Amino acid sequence: MSVLANILGICIVGLLIAVAACGTFVWFYNRMLSRMHESVTKKVVALATLPLGCLAGLVGGCRMVLSTPAGAERWVWLVGLAAGIGLVLRYTRVSLFKRQYARGSRFERPRLPVPSAIDWTGLRPHWKPFLWMLQPVNCVGDLRIHRRVVEVRDLPPEFDGYRIVHLTDMHIHKTLTPQWYDGVIDEAHAWKPDLLLYGGDFISKHPQIPRIPGIMSRLGAPDGVYYVRGNHDFWKAPQRIARLAEQCGMKLLSNQAVVLRRGAAALTLIGVESPYIPMTGTDRDALAQLPRPRIGLVHAPEGYADAAALGCVVALAGHTHGGQVRLPLFGTTVSSTAAGPIAAEGPGRWGDMLTLTSHGQGSFFPLRFLCPPEIIVVDLVPAEG
After folding, report:
1. What is the DSSP string of 198-209?
2. Strand-strand pairing, 105-108 and 353-357
3. Could you read off the pLDDT of 301-324 as tens digits, one per residue?
4. Residue 269 · residue 245 · CB < 8 Å
5. Of all helices (H) and strands (E), which one includes residue 73?
6. Which of 66, 107, 149, 236 has its CA 20 to 30 A from that of 346?
7. What is the DSSP letter of 365?
8. What are 350's strand-pairing partners?
């Protein structure tokens, strides 16, 4: 009986300490390293999070249950235990809150058949058995449609029912099939958008840049296709990517805006490229003069602050991939944004502004768990009263 009690105690205490250790690594990654270039340090921290956290939990659980550590070591494990309890409560609360908040959204299946996503020929041989075993739970190709009806105060009647389709984070890569990207674009067109937005991160690596025109040139909408660049675009080749996107008929909004008109009625779209290109006082003054209501397009949730300050009623972002790998109850862990897990996916609030953070459609590694790729479809309607 004592053996079983010891094993149970090690599991419980070790799990809580492991949560605290992983939480510390995740905090460090999100707050300190999320904006860095793809450096060796960043990759080591990201890859080491889970194994080092589990190791700390195993050691701490054994020390707390099987022996009586004294002095500073005892306080280290007690603090870890308390922090683990706090993080369990926090992450569970965040996850439940997000589920409750998502009631204003509808999640639907695609209207068109979506081709298979993983290109097995583009994978390195040592990854193939790993991904093959995870196929039953890998939702990298399980595209969803996130529909949201957004009530906008003072929306002109001419824009009642105006539809915006938001794509982001395609991450064109050899591990996803060309047919997958074509299927995503076909599905975006199937919703008949008035306006099509792209939130950045065309590619992950330099060799994929020449593929941009072949995929993105198919995008089109009556009021145009507008985009901002993502962190990978800025890190790799921002000017070259901008030229290729222009060849595809896409229009860059780099801390700029466009006024969409229906006769005398107006709707303003603002593209925010901060924090990668900080917004100047001159930018803010010019954008503050444009007609309301205003819609914001940003790459990362860090741009929400500027979009809210400019009076946007709703802003759309990507960057986080929704966490890409989510845990039951805990939800998003590594969010890659200093805004934290609450802003990593789905609808939220930034002051009076509604925020919609997309899971995106691509993956620089073809694995998603409890976090399917998605297209966001927004219908604008006048606010009642």
Report:
1. E-S--BSSGGGG
2. unpaired
3. 999 999 999 999 999 999 999 988
4. no
5. helix 71-101
6. 236
7. S
8. 353
